[in-house]
Write the structure tokens for this entry.
Amino acid sequence: MVKVKVCIKLVDDSSVESKTLSEIVPEGTTLKELIEKKVTSVGWTNKELIVKSAQLYDEDFKQFVDITEPFDSLVLLNMQRFEVHLNKAEPKMDIILADISINETVQQGQKLVLPSDSTVNDFILAVVSTFCKDATDTAVNSVNYFDPDFNEFIDIEKPFENVPILFQHRYSISIVYAKMPINLNSDLHDMESKLPNEVQILLNGVDVHLTLISKTNCIIWVEMLLKHINTRIELMDREVFKSCLCFDPSAPVDSRISQIADMNYPRYNHSLVVANGKLYAIGG
């Protein structure tokens, strides 16, 4: 059997790794067959590389020139030299439609773009990174997909890493999480930039609910004890108070918190407004 000798340089552009190899192959071998064989022999099969470009050394011009002929029809000739550049294949992306419940707030018909080979675990990570950015602790209550044959949502069993996403189905996921506590000892400017209208904070080891009244003077809140149950923050109705505390971020650290006048009745989930130098608790 007639054989030919060729030289091929494989370049992995994703890692700047290269291999220069010589090979004696049967006459009639194509460039495609040579590339596949050498990628396997150097242990790059698991890298999932694809050919980005291939060049053949031209003896007349003394330089490499691009190959435009299909690799599976280019038959190797004796003493040819090739340089082949490979790179990671860009993953095929697909869209998943999902109903997402975060701390019992449901957002229906959300679209997430995921690689087509994603698992349910990848879907969960995408939801958490998109909808729970300020979470310190998350827990997945359930993940379901809609089965059109039974016309209902079906629970997905663990381990989620082993369950592929079926993009033709609609999904439902329920997540609960706790928000990151705010540091009360930060300075006024820091407080102004970080505090939303309502936040959970940690005061003397107890979680309390804080409602922002003024970013320039002081912050007032009605004290309400909270507790964590399975990473969910739930209000304890039996421990709702009418007492009020004032936090002044501009005061010395040891005197920032002070007691002010009580409300007439214990309240929660109410609004607070400031008018003519007085606080008014409304509703709840």
About this structure: The first strand starts at residue 3 and ends at 12. The domain at 93-179 is CATH 3.10.20 (Ubiquitin-like (UB roll)). The helical segments are 31-41, 120-131, 188-194. The chain has three domains: 3-88, 93-179, 188-282.
